[in-house]
Predict the 3D structure of the following.
Amino acid sequence: MNLIVIHKNSSDGGGEGLLPFALASEPLARVVLDGLSRCLHRSGGLDFGETAIAIPEGWRFGSGADAGPSEVERRPAEHTQSNVTFYGEGVPVASELAAEVRRKKLLSSWFAISNGRFATQVNAGLLESALTGIRADVLAVNVDPDLPGEREKVRLTAEGRVAGFRRVYSDWAEFTFTGGDWPHHLFVRHHVLSHVVAGNALPASFSAFAERCRSEGLTLRGIVVCGNALDLGTEDGLLSFCRTELARYRNSRLGDSGKISGNPRIVGKVLLGENISAGSDVIIIGPAVIGDRVRIETGAIIHSSIIGPGSCVPRDRLVRGCVVEGPQHNWSRSTSSQSGHSGRASRTSRDLSSPQDVYNPFRTWGRLSYARCLKRITDCIVAVAVLTLFAPVIPFVALAIKLTSSGPVFYKDKRQGLHGREFDCLKFRTMITGAHEIQQKLRAVSQVDGPQFKMTDDPRINTVGRFLRETYIDEIPQFVNVLLGQMSVVGPRPSPESENTLCPLWRDARLSVRPGITGLWQIFRTREPMRDFQEWIHYDIKYVRNLSLKTDLWLCWRTTKKLLDNFISQF
């Protein structure tokens, strides 16, 4: 169960502000409530079951300024798919809600309580990992748009000195302290729900809630997760939220033509209320919401705005990127012009339909291009041919490895592939077990620059390992990676995250394609001291810039020639 709570202090505590206005205005109220009920579900498949929404008593709901008490109680069920309730001193958490969580056992039986002032889109993978792995009875989750990938974060000591930089290429979450305000989302394990509610009601403030958790001996943890959050108590947040929600509709005029008199020109997604009148030469540009009983006078233009019930838009007025709350709206603070309709542009907010990109590619290709289509088909054909050709040889190689050194036949190492996705890169094992630990001791005698390691007569190589490396037979299992779509026959050298983090531009270039078994660097590297890493960067970027069928065929020919020469030289 997901309980969305509109807290009494969501605006200024007095029932004034944009959030109470939004809930009292049709058709805006149903847009807000239906959108809020989808926030957690739109984050990527997280299922918390049914949604209930709790609204403070005394707040008008979907009624406009002139509705009576009976209409306030009547309209919620008509206009939203969520179960709407009103609360007084404490937010009701009925026992049947907890029973719903126990019955469905959703996400380890977490009961979700969301702050209705904020519409959020959370990185679903991070949130699910936190809910699955954290050891806590209650988890307070806040959404932070400043935690996406492609960022550097300074790490400080307790004295405030710089300890280092952390460069992350994917969205992340981190622990934080719980403050005094209600978080964006609160997750309570179902078996402790009765301990944090008194009389089937939540405490009025989060401080009181946290104190109750401590008095009951419950563990309360706080995290911030990458995502987007819109504050519906602000003009920018409410406008951006409505823009996202209206984009879901297919029809451009979201209401009956009979609801608006006159013949205004409507462009884009416009949601219409009841009994709207428009003069001549009126233009309404979506996304926009026009409430009940709105009068739009001659020559007015409404652009990406919300017009509250009972409002009157003056003649020749440009209303752009703002919220008109009702008949008492102060037009002197709004955009206007008698000629040219010039005025201020609205401030922009990140909306929920445009989540943070976790990867900014160096290059992109069309779906039917060589790089995305024909290259993949060719890779599969070549991989099947090579694995079939070497199938009789593979058992003898495996036997030689097992007889000459202890350990597995295959070696798996984590590498980053297309768009930074990690995979297990396969090779025949050519080193003794524990080679990675020994490498740290030999780092001082490495003969190449950069993050990689190489030395002549490496003591870690086992008996048959040198022959397998010189003849490149150790890389035959990588054709399995090619079949799985993790690698390509030709491309940049596959490398781990620890090496990619040292050069962001290089990383963006090389990870815009699948890594390859062979490539420019493997063919043209000079092995000159202290130049290997620079050549590696140069050739990988050059390949991505010049990727073509002709280049791949030419590299395959040069690689085949080099393999034959190296194999013959072993005898």
